[in-house]
UniProtKB/TrEMBL annotation:
PANTHER family: ATP-DEPENDENT DNA LIGASE, BIFUNCTIONAL NON-HOMOLOGOUS END JOINING PROTEIN LIGD. InterPro entries: LigD_pol_dom (IPR014145), NHEJ_LigD (IPR052171). It comes from Mycobacterium shottsii. Residues 2-129 form the DNA ligase D polymerase domain. This is DNA ligase D polymerase domain-containing protein. Pfam families: LigD_Prim-Pol (PF21686). Residues 150-170 are annotated as: Disordered.
Length: 264
C-alpha cells in the first residue's frame, strides 16, 4: 500500500530491508522543500496508508494506541540515525539493510540478507536502486493532500502532559520490567503472567508492549501491559518492577573531542 500511495502522488518508491524486522521505503525528491515540508509529506503518506487500510496499518506514534502495522514517518526527523543501503546491522547473523525490487517484498525474509549472502546477490543481479537518481519527484501533490486531510493528530497537551513534559498515558498501563536483553524481558513477562494468570488469560496480543529502548550504546528492553481489556476492578496495580536495569549506570558522556568525559 505504501508503494501504491507514493505512486498515486507522483513519487517512485524504492524498498529495502531495515536489517532488522521491518522495511524502509525511500522516494527520491528534488532539493526544493524545507525540512518541515518533507516531514509533513512523509506523515501524510502514513496517514493515507492508514486511511486506505484501517485496522491493518496505523500511523499512531504511541505504541499503546496502535493496531496493525506501524508506518513510521517519524524517521523523518532531525535527530534520527539512518541505516543506509548495504549497511551491516548489529545482529548475531550480521544482517544487511538490502535494496529490493518490489516483486521481492511480499515473500522477503530479512534473515536471508546477511554479510555472507548479499555480496553474491549484488554480483549476480546488481543494485535494484541503480535508477534512483533519475527518478526525482515532487511533493506538491502530497502537500495538497495534507491540506485536504486536515491537521495531523498531535501528542496530548495540557492535561495530557505530566510535569516532566512526557506524555500522560491515555491507556491504563503498568510497567513490568526493564532489562538489558530481550530474553530477560520475556522471562520477566513470564513471571508476571504467573503472578496474574486470570489477567494474563484475558490480554490480547497487542496489550503486551515489548519496547526496544535506545540506551547510550545499545538497545535495552521495557515490558508494559495495557489493561484496557481488563475490567477496572480486576486490574492489578503497578507493582515493584520484576527487573530494573539502568542503561545509564556508570555512563559518562564524551567530551567535546568525542572521548569519555573525565570526572571533576
Amino acid at each position: 500500500m505504501v508503494h501504491e500511495v507514493l505512486e498515486d502522488y507522483g513519487l517512485t518508491p524504492w524498498p529495502k530491508t531495515s536489517g532488522s524486522r521491518g522495511f524502509h521505503v525511500y522516494a527520491r525528491i528534488a532539493p526544493r522543500w524545507s525540512f518541515s515540508q518533507v516531514r509533513l509529506a512523509a506523515q501524510t503518506v502514513a496517514r493515507e496508508v492508514e486511511r486506505r487500510m484501517p485496522g491493518v496499518a496505523t500511523s499512531r506514534w504511541w505504541k499503546e494506541e496502535r493496531e496493525g502495522v506501524f508506518v513510521d514517518f517519524n524517521q523523518n526527523a532531525k535527530d534520527r540515525t539512518v541505516a543506509s543501503a548495504y549497511s551491516v546491522r548489529a545482529t548475531p547473523d550480521a544482517r544487511v539493510s538490502t535494496p529490493l525490487h518490489w516483486h521481492e517484498v511480499a515473500d522477503c525474509d530479512p534473515q536471508d540478507f546477511t554479510l555472507d549472502t548479499v555480496p553474491d546477490r549484488f554480483a549476480e543481479m546488481g543494485d535494484p536502486w541503480s535508477g534512483m537518481d533519475d527518478a526525482a519527484g515532487a511533493l506538491d501533490r502530497l502537500l495538497m493532500l495534507a491540506e485536504e486531510l486536515g491537521p495531523p493528530q498531535r501528542a496530548p497537551t495540557g492535561a495530557g502532559k505530566r510535569s516532566d513534559g512526557r506524555r500522560q498515558p491515555s491507556m491504563p498501563l503498568i510497567e513490568v520490567a526493564r532489562t538489558k536483553t530481550k530474553d530477560e524481558a520475556m522471562a520477566a513477562l513470564d513471571t508476571w503472567r504467573a503472578r496474574h494468570p486470570a489477567v494474563a488469560d484475558r490480554l490480547q496480543p497487542a496489550d503486551v508492549l515489548v519496547d526496544g529502548m535506545r540506551g547510550p550504546s545499545s538497545i535495552w528492553y521495557r515490558i508494559r501491559i495495557n489493561l484496557q481489556h481488563i475490567p477496572p476492578e480486576a486490574r492489578p496495580p503497578q507493582e515493584e518492577l520484576i527487573a530494573e536495569y539502568n542503561p545509564w549506570h556508570g555512563y559518562r558522556p564524551p567530551d567535546g573531542r568525542g572521548r569519555p568525559g573525565a570526572d571533576g
